[in-house]
Amino acid sequence: MRALLxxxxxxxxxxxxxxxxxxxxGVARTPPMGWNSWNHFGCDxxxxxxxxxxxxxxxxxxxxxxxxxVVIDDCWQVARDARGRLVADTVRFPGGMxxxxxxxxxxGLRFGLYTDAGRxxxxxxxxxxxxxxxxxxxxxxxxxxxxxxxxxxxxxLDAPTQYAKFRxxxxxxxxxxxxxxxxxxxxxxxxxxxxxxxxxxxTTDIDDTWNSMLSLLDISGQHASAARxxxxxxxxxxxxxxxxxxxxxxxxxxxxxxxxxxxxxxxxDVRTMTPATRDILTNREVIAVDQDSLGVQGTLVSExxxxxxxxxxxxxxxxxxxxxxxxxxxQSVVAASWWRLRISGPAxxxxxxxxxxxxxxxxxxxATVPAHGVVMVRVTxxxxx
Length: 385
Ligand code: GLA
Prior knowledge:
Blueprint (H helix, E strand, L loop, with lengths): L1 H14 L17 E4 L1 H4 L5 H13 L2 H4 L3 E4 L4 E4 L5 E3 L8 H10 L3 E7 L15 H11 L3 E5 L8 H15 L4 E4 L7 H4 L6 E3 L8 H11 L11 E3 L12 H13 L4 E3 L8 H7 L2 H7 L8 E7 L2 E7 L5 E7 L5 E6 H4 L5 E5 L4 E6 L2 E6 L3 E9 L4
Parallel strand pairs: 1-2, 1-10, 2-5, 5-6, 6-7, 7-8, 8-9
Antiparallel strand pairs: 3-4, 11-12, 12-13, 13-18, 14-17, 15-16, 15-18
Helix pairs in contact: 3-5, 6-7, 9-10, 10-11, 10-12
The structure holds alpha-D-galactopyranose.
Alpha-D-galactopyranose (GLA) binds next to loops.
């Protein structure tokens, strides 16, 4: 009898998916928000650019909308010094990184840097392999709050092992630092990422095109069960405002990233953006969906055809964020049934792009969705069970 009492719970456990232990470094409890230099500037980074970007973010509403981290991607580093410490390009970053971090902090923002878990960065700069503790200490001394670690020049290395090494080095360095794993989904990071970093790329690099954006949605959307507070799937940084998509397409991109509880890392030139780009990036109702404290990544819940889809993210107040996605080149009607949204009874529907209450609906909601576009709503049941 006693043996049986043991067997039953153990057998039940076998049927349940037990999540891996979570990295508990106290940061990124909601998806990180910020800006990164790569998508727009590539290697053309400098202290001047970072200062102007931080100033712009403080002045144009981005910071106040929640964008915090100002992250310099590849190409800031040129060598290691006699003691093995990373050296920043002295022409582009005169004075090094510490004063720049101070400048960013003084604007009420946080500072991030890029490195690579392999022997070199993707652009051939010194990598962190073999210098994990020294680099983590150096970053902490400079006042770094966010590190993105890439995976170039890592032949023969094991991703879970190398990223765990840097996680432990960051913990020893003693400064709370968001740890962004960037190995492009190559070794199933959704399995070990939650125990290792705060976010992990699920895909190869984004391009500023509708098809690229959708392909990353389809990949990252498959790993929703791995996401939770402190640990996020990363379908790559935003292209909003970089010019390769229409504003409708960028609204879709931003809505879908929010629905996926993805990191919202702007990748445009925030010093010169158009009012339309600014309105997309600072839409507080859409950002609130991304940042919802329940921390659940939304999923595809129905499709009438592969091109007309309904995506749903449960929210902490019992409501649902819903994206009606039209992947086709023709304006179309898309409907979401309450059954698919797992709610019942009357529910209020609010349009998160029109900023308007649409009324109370029972059973379903439908809308005309522009070609290559979305309608995004919040559905709040009158009676939350
Ligand atoms: C890789 C990463 C990108 C960017 C570049 C920099 O491609 O996936 O996000 O960091 O390297 O070289």
